[in-house]
């Protein structure tokens, strides 16, 4: 079972590029029921589009931001969304006490994955490597070639 980090969700929404092709290929090899997103990723994406709306200087900018809000809502409405629940918030507090220093929203996503014994799919391997007990992979990278016997 896997939790998609916000960066992997954004890649899937873009529907273009080498990262998208590699990620899509790996996702297609597994049942869709193996993949989840977090409410924290929804928070991150919606916050970005709310900010865009606040900065909109004309009708075109406003229309674009609202279309992206709609697209984000549709993405998450069709997904299995994991909550930031009591177990995750307790782990979050413990990791903060241990002085694990990564972005707050990233740590919340990590806590959701850890408390459910799931792997996180992310490109942000440097930061997530700081989180004890977190399993993570980057599916946008080329898979290593298997060695011949």
Task: Kindly describe this structure.
The protein has a five-stranded parallel beta sheet with strand order 3-2-1-4-5. With 149 residues, the protein is an alpha/beta fold. Helix 1 (6-14) crosses helix 2. The longest helix has 19 residues, at 59-77. It has a domain at 2-27 and 34-41 and 81-137: Rossmann fold (3-Layer(aba) Sandwich). The protein has helices at 6-14, 18-28, 39-55, 59-77, 86-97, 104-115, 125-128, and strands at 2-4, 35-38, 81-82, 119-121, 135-137.
What oligomeric state do these chains adopt?
single chain
Arithmetic mean of pLDDT: 93
Q: Encode the helix/strand succession as letters.
A: EHHEHHEHHEHE
The number of helical elements comes to: 7
**Which stretches are low in confidence, meaning pLDDT under 50 for 5 or more residues running?**
145-149
Number of strands: 5
Rg over CA atoms: 17 Å
- The neighbouring-strand order within the major sheet is 3-2-1-4-5
Helical proportion, percent range:
55-70%
Tell me the major beta sheet: 5 strands, parallel
What is the 3D shape? globular
Please give the CATH architecture of the domain at 2-27 and 34-41 and 81-137. 3-Layer(aba) Sandwich
Identify the CATH homologous superfamily of the domain at 2-27 and 34-41 and 81-137.
5'-nuclease
Estimated share of beta-strand residues:
5-15%
State the name of the first-level CATH class of the domain at 2-27 and 34-41 and 81-137: Alpha Beta
Q: What name is given to the CATH topology of the domain at 2-27 and 34-41 and 81-137?
A: Rossmann fold
Terminal CA distance reads 30 Å
In terms of structural class, how would the helical and strand content be classed? alpha/beta
């Amino acid at each position: 079972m896997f939790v998609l980090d916000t960066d992997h969700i954004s890649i899937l929404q873009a529907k273009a590029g080498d990262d998208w092709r590699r990620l899509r290929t790996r996702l297609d090899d597994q049942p869709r029921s193996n993949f989840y997103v977090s409410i924290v990723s929804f928070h991150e994406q919606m916050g970005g589009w709310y900010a865009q709306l606040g900065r909109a200087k004309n009708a075109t900018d406003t229309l674009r931001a609202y279309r992206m809000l709609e697209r984000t809502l549709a993405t998450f409405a069709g997904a299995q969304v994991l909550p930031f629940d009591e177990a995750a918030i307790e782990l979050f507090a413990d990791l903060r006490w241990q002085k694990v220093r990564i972005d707050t929203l990233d740590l919340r996503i990590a806590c959701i994955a850890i408390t459910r014994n799931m792997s996180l799919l992310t490109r942000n391997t440097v930061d997530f490597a700081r989180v004890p007990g977190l399993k993570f992979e980057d599916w946008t990278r080329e898979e290593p070639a298997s060695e011949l016997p």
